[in-house]
Prior knowledge:
A hairpin with an 8-residue loop joins β3 (about 55-60) and β4. The chain is α+β, with helices and mostly antiparallel strands. It is about 25% helix and about 35% strand. The protein folds into 2 domains: about 5-175, 2,3-Dihydroxybiphenyl 1,2-Dioxygenase, domain 1, CATH 3.10.180.10; about 190-385, 2,3-Dihydroxybiphenyl 1,2-Dioxygenase, domain 1, CATH 3.10.180.10. It has 10 helices and 18 strands. The longest helix has 15 residues, at about 370-385. It starts with a helix and ends with a helix. The model is unreliable at about 1-5 (pLDDT under 50).
Amino acid sequence: MNPTQNIHQGHWIAPRPITLLEGEDPQAIEGFDYAEFYVENARQTAMYFCFSFGFTPVAYRGPETGYTESASYVLKQNKVTLLITAPLKTTSPICNQVALHGMTVHDVAFRVPNCEAFYYAAMEKGAESAMVPTVWQDEHGVIKKAAIKAYGDTIHSLVERTNYSGDFWPGFVPYGDLFAVPENTSLDGLIVIDHMVANVQLGKMEHWVKYYENILGFSQFLSFSDDDISTEYSALMSKVMTGGHGKIKLPINEPAHGKRKSQIEEYLEFHNGPGVQHLALATNDIIGVVRELKSRGITFLNVPKSYYDDLPERVGPIKQDLQQLAELGILVDRDEDGYLLQLFTKPLHDRPTIFFEIIQRQGSKGFGVGNFKALFEAIERDQELRGNL
């Protein structure tokens, strides 16, 4: 085995006694590390995210670096890291997942201070392993990673990178060493992953709530019934799980009975099972970001202009200009902690599955429950255009 193969494959860490400081949580989480998309064509998808959403390509792994199983591009914008991966061989399991799901988030990765402690604590509680603790090493230091399975084909990688100073991972090279970096495409407005939302089958939400509570040590933050999230035609139920002292927020949706097919049912049908519905990306300037994204061709869900007629009475005083919010279609909601502004893109590819949310929090810790009806009616209008309502 040559050194390049060693870098790509890593070395399994044999189980050993875990040493923790007194009071130290073995399942501590520092935040989201990255979200890995499985796609058919990684280069084209990476460029789409760069030119349309302002991400910068920072690292690459593929045939040019001695790795022949897949091609992966690492994209960053502030604290948001996306890993875009495509199979290179039809025998790859990635190929099967892309055929089944289309563009899909395969890995919702957590950054943790102790990979081994987290993994073995989860395994003792009944988790199913996706990767045993493994170490990668190069001139920039050491990374440890393990992974456990979640809903559908989704996994949670547990990434310990305390002792690593490289751009992303051993075996990846700086993007600019191989390819020209796109000019004048960067956008500085998307700051961090605020939350990621999962869609699961009818009757499975409670199962996954218990999974996150009992196996990962999460707690339930909020709960929404079909009375909270419903229109004339469809409804859904949702519970928000949180971990890492609030650094990780994972809402879980399931469909509820309605007159017609709900957005969750449409997702499950076209995704062929449960998966990540959307990533919410936080910003401090939603007006500027949405205006820029629209100029780059990004399309968003539209709400009727009448939504803004009673907005001042419904949400109270806000810092942003109401005329600009109405012009861009940005939604506003208030709770006891403050208010938030949010807007949802249309699906990122041809299947009506995964999309982005742009969110700006002005104190609010919620998820825009006051916008649910307007939002889901907007989704239903798109479903009707697709013939899927």
